[in-house]
Design brief:
The protein is of the alpha+beta class. The chain folds into 2 domains: 115 residues, D-amino Acid Aminotransferase, Chain A, domain 1, CATH 3.30.470.10; 146 residues, D-amino Acid Aminotransferase, subunit A, domain 2 (D-amino Acid Aminotransferase, Chain A, domain 2), CATH 3.20.10.10. A hairpin with a 2-residue loop joins strand 3 and strand 4. 29% of the residues lie in helices and 30% in strands. The strands form 2 sheets. Strands 7, 8, 9, 10, 11, 12, 13, 14 and 15 form a 9-stranded mixed sheet that branches. Strands 2-1-6-5-3-4 form a 6-stranded antiparallel sheet. It is globular, with a radius of gyration of 19 Å. GO terms for molecular function: transaminase activity.
Length: 271
């Protein structure tokens, strides 16, 4: 089952017109979230990011999303798809109607899918440095969708190189993010993460990690680091809505691992 514009339908019954603007122009965005133990993790933060993305794209969000009805509908969908215990939600929103580059309307269509999955492993990551593409800061880069091809190409390089993930740099060779996670590092008791204008996604877990650290009295800084300085960190880890994982090597070079903060964050945000 899935939800299309508020209606529960079988996946086999979904028919989208060839004029669909998501297909024709990538005119929209998507949100990925986790259902765990019958709840949508970090849901308020997801809604806030959707509202910010819609404002940038000049999309009018459906009343179902704005009013808060959506959360209940999604949990119903999770139950129907046997994903209430642990599942992955993908919510896609795109501009309705046809037209060429100039749209006919700013109203949005939407589609929600939820599938059962298993929690991500906590084993440390072995990552490479992506050389084929760079992140690019824009008014669209903080949310998911408009720059999706960038991460697809990074994923291809990851597969070719045999790494668990790839470290993405911007055009100035400044550390930005991983293909599907934000990156963090601890140095002299300060938690660092790349600044948003390096072109990274404003991740939901990124927001919650920074919030938790500030509440816990841990100094945080959004920074501009090159790889040489990143390698000198006391510990490096990655985080997204599926969890938090330490990083063990970068381009096969070992880096320091200290699981203390990582385990604290896992307990605080994912337990």
């Amino acid at each position: 089952m899935l939800i299309y514009n508020g209606d529960f339908i079988l996946e086999s019954k979904l028919h989208l017109p060839i004029a669909n603007r998501a297909f024709q122009f990538n005119d929209g965005f998507f949100e990925t979230a986790i259902v765990a133990d019958g709840k949508l993790r970090f849901w308020k933060d997801h809604v806030a990011r959707m509202q910010a993305a819609a404002q940038v794209l000049k999309l009018e969000l459906p009343q179902t999303i704005v009013s808060g009805e959506l959360e209940e509908m999604l949990l119903q969908l999770a139950k129907q798809n046997n994903a209430a215990n642990y599942g992955r939600l993908k919510l896609k929103l795109w501009r309705s109607g046809g037209g060429l580059y100039t749209p006919e309307t700013n109203q949005a269509d939407w589609l929600a899918t939820i599938v059962p999955t298993t929690p991500t492993t906590t084993t440390p990551l072995h990552i490479g440095i992506c050389e084929t593409i760079n992140t690019n800061y824009s008014s669209f880069s903080f949310f998911k969708g408009p720059n999706a091809l960038l991460y697809v190409m990074a994923g291809i390089e990851k597969k070719e190189q045999g790494f668990d993930d790839m470290l993405l740099l911007n055009r100035q060779r400044i550390v930005s993010e991983l293909t599907s996670s934000n990156i963090f590092w601890l140095k002299n008791g300060v938690l660092f993460t790349p600044a948003i204008d390096t072109g990274c996604v404003q991740g939901i877990v990124r927001q919650n990690i920074l919030r938790w650290c500030r509440d816990a009295g841990i100094k945080t800084k959004e920074a501009y680091y090159d790889v040489t300085n990143l390698l000198k960190a006391d510990t490096i880890f990655a985080g997204n809505v599926t969890g938090i994982r330490s990083i063990a090597t970068i381009n096969s070079e070992s880096v320091s691992i200290d699981e203390v903060l990582v385990q604290q964050l896992r307990r605080a945000l994912f337990s």
